Each structure stands twice: as C-alpha cells, then as structure tokens.
Amino acid sequence: MKIARTPLAIVSMLTLLGALTGCGGSDSDSSSASMPQEIMDQGYLTIGTEFAREGQFVELDDGTYSGFEADLSAALGEQLGIEIRYDNTGWLGLQPALDAGEIDVAMAQLSDYAEREQSMTMVNYLRSGSDIIVPAGNPNAIASFLDLCGLNVGAWTDSLQAKLLATESDKCPDGTSITIANVDPLGDASYAAAVGTGVTDAWLTDSLNAMPTAAAYGTGNELEVIRVGDDSAGLNATPIGIGVGVTQTELVTAIQVGLQELVDNGTYQELLNQYSLQDFAVESIGVNTAVATP
Predict the structure, then answer these.
(1) Alpha-carbon gap, residue 97 to 294, rounded angstroms
(2) Spatial CA neighbour of 259 closest among 288, 290, 284
(3) How far apart are CA 57 and CA 114, in angstroms?
(4) How confident is the model at residue 26 (pLDDT cuts 50, 70, 90)?
(5) pTM value?
(6) What residues contact residue 79 under an 8 Å CB cut-off, 6+ apart?
(7) Which residue, of 19, 56, 88, 126, is most buried by count of CB atoms within 10 Å of its CB?
(8) Listed residue (100, 101, 99, 103) closest to 120, CA to CA
(9) Is residue 29 over pLDDT 80?
(10) Which H or E element spans position 242?
(11) Type and span of the H or E element at 270
(12) Residue 291 — pLDDT band, cuts 50, 70, 90?
C-alpha cells in the first residue's frame, strides 16, 4: 500500500480513508478509545519516524510512503478518527523531539527495554530480534556472534543492536573485539552500502527489515542475511512499539485500544500478510512489556 503525502509530510484523513479501502478494518465501527482533548483540539497526531527503512517506512520516488509501519499508523489514525502527520525526525532525533513536544509519538522500530521505558512509554505491536547482513557468500563464514570478533560490524547508534554488540564483544577471546561502526546519515541504505562495498564486514540489524534491505541493495543478490538461533523473529527478540511521553497516560491508552481494535477486526493480520511479517506478530497489544537490555 502507498500513502500519499504533501510536501510537508502531512497525511490527511481523506487520503488515509482512500488508501485504506482494501483493509479489513476500513469499514469497522469507530474506536472506543478516547483521545486526549489537547490532541483533538490540535486536530492531528504527529508521528516522529525515520523514513529510510525498507519494509517499514520508505519514501518512494513518486512522493508516497510504503511499508508496514506507514500502513499500520494510517489504519490507526482512521480507527481513532484523527488525522496523522509524519515528521521525518530521524533516529537520533526521536527522543529529543518527543521531550520537546515537537512530535506526539515516536514510531521507528523502537525496541522496548527497561532503559528506554525510563524516557518513553512503549505501546508494543510487534516483536523482533536481530539478524546479521554480510556480503553474498558469507566470506567470513559468520555463523555466531563469536565469529564477529575481530571484525568491523555496523549498527545504528544507540540501538539495541549496538548494545548487543558491545555485550558480545566483551566475550571475545583475549586480544580481539568487535569494532562497532556507525554510519547513520542515510539510514539503512548507508549500512547496506557499507557491507556491500567492504567498508564494514557485516551489519547487525533488526530482523524486521533485514531481508527487504538486503534485497533492495544493488542487484538484489549482493548481500546475504545470517540468522543466529532458531527464533523465527530473530535473535533475542524483543517487543517493538510506539513511544509515547511517560506522562501521557491517556494517549497511551488510546493508542493501545486503537491498535488492539485493529488486531481484533483483522486489519493487523492483513498488513502482516501483505508484508510477510507473520513471524513477528503479537497476540495482543501490550504496554511496557520490556525485556532486559543486553
């Protein structure tokens, strides 16, 4: 599904209603959730995100958005009866923008862990772990985290993957470690290109978009995804959620109820099927269901 935008990255409810006609929840009853009065007075909900994430939220050449998060948030806006506006805040700008009130919520494959819950309340709608992206043929024969010792491995700044690499590096044999490389500016494309051109040996990324990102690089067969462990959602799968200000309890409840209604009316499952994300599904929408930080 594509979602049209204006140059200001505003998605109006008229656009959303048209774009979501094919989803199971588009003809559902209105939500039982009560949006905070300040949001209703404002007239829209601003979602801070990171556009350049294959399979989740991508800005296409024709000026539309595509991806699971783009479609799920659009469906949520329709369910809650509120206009959705997107702000390409960027990964490192999400928390500062939320704290400053520049965005109402953050939605960019945010892993829920105890440390993060100190600064935002997480409304969780998926679970996902980590996969390793390597050059096709896996020249370094990577099959475990121990095989990353002595290598240069990409990971988003301040991500769960970066924390995991730091923890695993401490387990490396004496004299070796995992060098963590941050190449954030152009999003996932930067990390894929770093692996493809040999700047890094590998990239530890969220399992949700590992396959779409690898397939989108170059000719589509230049990168390979390595799955460590047997969890279909990836290694050390954690909840993924929408981040809301810790004092915004009414908004947290509204988003949780709205998302649960999308689960109950079948829209959530339709979107999972559309983007082949069935392995990452949750049975119900939880709040602050964190696991321990690596």
Answers:
(1) 26
(2) 284
(3) 25
(4) very low
(5) 0.81
(6) 25, 28, 30, 31, 33, 258, 261, 262, 267
(7) 56
(8) 99
(9) no
(10) strand 235-244
(11) helix 267-274
(12) confident
- pLDDT bracket for residue 53 (50, 70, 90): confident
> In the chain, what are the domain boundaries?
2-126+239-282, 128-235
| Mean pLDDT over each residue of the chain, to the nearest integer | 87
The domain 2-126+239-282 is placed in CATH, from the list 3.30.565.10, 3.40.190.10, 3.30.450.40, 3.40.50.2000, at: 3.40.190.10
> What token pair was written down for 290?
């964190």
Query: Which of the listed CATH numbers 3.20.20.150, 3.40.190.10, 2.40.30.10, 1.20.1560.10 matches domain 128-235?
Result: 3.40.190.10
The amino acid occupying position 117 is E
Q: Please check whether the two domains, 2-126+239-282 and 128-235, share a CATH topology.
A: yes
> Residue type for 180, please?
I
Mean pLDDT throughout 273-289? 96
Is 70 exceeded by the pLDDT of residue 16?
no
